[in-house]
Amino acid sequence: xxxxxxxxxxxxxxxxxxxxxxxxxxxxxxxxxxxxxxxxxxxxxxxxxxxxxxxxxxxxxxxxxxxxxxxxxxxxxxxxxxxxxxxxxxxxxxxxxxxxxxxxxxxxxxxxxxxxxxxxxxxxxxxxxxxxxxxxxxxxxxxxxxxxxxxxxxxxxxxxxxxxxxxxxxxxxxxxxxxxxxxxxxxxxxxxxxxxxxxxxxxxxxxxxxxxxxxxxxxxxxxxxxxxxxxxxxxxxxxxxxxxxxxxxxxxxxxxxxxxxxxxxxxxxxxxxxxxxxxxxxxxxxxxxxxxxxxxxxxxxxxxxxxxxxxxxxxxxxxxxxxxxxxxxxxxxxxxxxxxxxxxxxxxxxxxxxxxxxxxxxxxxxxxxxxxxxxxxxxxxxxxxxxxxxxxxxxxxxxxxxx
Amino acid sequence: xxxxxxxxxxxxxxxxxxxxxxxxxxxxxxxxxxxxxxxxxxxxxxxxxxxxxxxxxxxxxxxxxxxxxxxxxxxxxxxxxxxxxxxxxxxxxxxxxxxxxxxxxxxxxxxxxxxxxxxxxxxxxxxxxxxxxxxxxxxxxxxxxxxxxxxxxxxxxxxxxxxxxxxxxxxxxxxxxxxxxxxxxxxxxxxxxxxxxxxxxxxxxxxxxxxxxxxxxxxxxxxxxxxxxxxxxxxxxxxxxxxxxxxxxxxxxxxxxxxxxxxxxxxxxxxxxxxxxxxxxxxxxxxxxxxxxxxxxxxxxxxxxxxxxxxxxxxxxxxxxxxxxxxxxxxxxxxx
Lengths: 403, 336
Hints:
heterodimer; A: alpha/beta; TIM Barrel; 2 domains; two-stranded antiparallel sheet; 15 helices; 44% helix; B: alpha/beta; eight-stranded parallel beta barrel
């Protein structure tokens, strides 16, 4: 169903958008985020843009800072399977995908839910298979959080069990839901090349993206699959203006929405010490944070990575300046619609991807701009479909039914 | 349940009946040309227009053919506006945290119209006293209360999306579950979805139920089931076949013309044996045609149904109290 060189596009439908302060934008309506109308409007917009799918993430705890809810930012996605079930009845063609954890959902519940949504949507469901990290463990029992190896072994078992249940039930119009995976560790590569059909990746440079995709395709072939049976979709945040200058001004406008209270919250979330009342011109409290890491070795991973980025002797404000300057998207491009399209074309033709999962700066306004301004450019260049050729998510992604 | 002074009460001297329609209990609706989804959507729309209070997904269908109940109920969200959307969900197989999140999300997205028919699950022989089941519900309810009703403030100027001081950990350390919280979803608009539970032999105590559901086939058995309740309204399963489909069931049942069903419902209602019925159609689409065209209009004419169109959330519609937040100071966060 998809021509060579054609892009596959998904929308990561995250509440009011991927910019951390997008909810504060004058055109955002945070009160709408608890109602179904917002999500229906956005999914129909994605359908109008002929995207392959919309995608919702799964979380097993709220975003927190310093022992409580990180109240300066939007809540996480609501239950993703309630959302895609509701959207199955409110849309006709767009694929509907969601993460759901293999760590804390039983295979029975997982299989039944995705099978139902696949049937109700006429074969448009996709499951992003995720394992869950330690932060969620305290909401799910009394024992220690499973170690990586055990978690991953469990994930293999769960996926096998879920697929067996699907195979035993009534088939959907696309055979089975599409299996999606994200994660780039050695385990993730093995898992993705075994089961994954659409892969969300996060690379900043084309060369690294190309190496990842080639590696993944080779591994899939070594496992008896075709190279085309696996589609790599890096996360991508386009910041769109009618000119490059206008787009840059927009990037600045959004950055200005990152209120000092949000900056302090982000620091608290990253480093688990309270920044609420610290003067931002004080030296960055490197030693204080290092001491808390030694207390809790299990949670040092990402925190240690963030710490490595702190420069000797700098102030909190100087660190925060660099922290907030980094785009939230895995890839990002600031420019005119043509420049955004050039960037996407370069990645596709350079072998770095099969398409993108769009991390819109703000939803719906900035996503609508992408649909109305960038997609027509891609269509003119023959890089994106002008209409759906099939009815199922597999049709859109150019995937065969599972054997 | 409702007093006759309620604005939505029936015209007669009888409180309006609570009427539910099981979407997929004895049989799933036959697929129309639009497929399985559209057959269910048509059913829900028709049930809403006819005046049913709620539809119920996942009740007693054969497991192999069953669509996941919560997904089916959620799919009805945009096709309906005032209808209650209820799902049978077994606690077995679910972590309380995930179930709380699913129902909080559903109640938010559906504007406070949801209900949870809570059952322990057939795969749980290891819980003969239903202690795990009871603790599961307790944790789910506590998680709903981990956010205050007014925790979302959306103050753009001060950069406060949610007031973290109006959220809290529940720190539950029970026999079966350890859950810290808070939930990753705000408090449901109804405070808690309407809780439906079986009452009678083999069912857990329905102490936490907002609506009890009896499988009694006689008024005497229904009266015995009601005796154990704390004043919650009780509805009775009623299998119907109004368009000739065969009907085999151990429940209260009617097979025949509409007039006989109206007479049966009226007799049960006037005797006080039931506050309403959970209608299980043998042939959903065909039976609903007759229910909508003949049975519900006749009940309305007899003052047994609400005459005013429904508004507000499902609790309001059913005359049920809104649960106070267990963590809120007395007199705060609890609407009058």
